[in-house]
Design brief:
Elements (H helix, E strand, L loop, with lengths): L1 H18 L3 E5 L4 E5 L4 E2 L9 E5 L6 E8 L5 H14 L3 E7 L3 E8 L2 E10 L4 E10 L3 H14 L1 E2 L7
Antiparallel strand pairs: 1-2, 2-10, 3-4, 4-5, 5-9, 6-7, 7-8, 8-9
Length: 163
Amino acid sequence: MRSLFALIALITLALPVLAEDWQRYDNERFGFVLPVPPGFALAAPPPANGDGVTLANRQGTQRLLAWGGHVTEADFSAEAEARAASAAAEGWAITYRATTPGWASWSGSRNGIVLYTRMIALCAGNQFAAVQLTYPQRDIAAMTSVVERLVGGLAATGQSLSC
């Protein structure tokens, strides 16, 4: 009988964890999707123009921004480089940067906060989708798999309303 109660207690305690699953953010305006980690919810109302969303974890210590935009530099790579340079100008110590014609990533830190940004080219390089994640340095170990899933899941749908 004790074993049965122990099993029921274990299942009951595990249900909230099992119930939390990754969700999906769809941006119809720019035509991209992004996996949303468990526990993240809207941190601010999305803009009326539909260009993105701001999410945060329950504690508000981890923030995820996802947005699309139009390339205003010479090409996607130049756009990504300009945005990474802008982050550095804002005081982020950029420690990793990689840019290709189809995607770009950079990461760094500032005042105990980690920044990770990933961009992908959309609409034949005329638009982009971006995800930016910020979180405390103490969360690096826990966030590594989250970053990997975000990078792997940020994708074009091929169905943009603005392409």
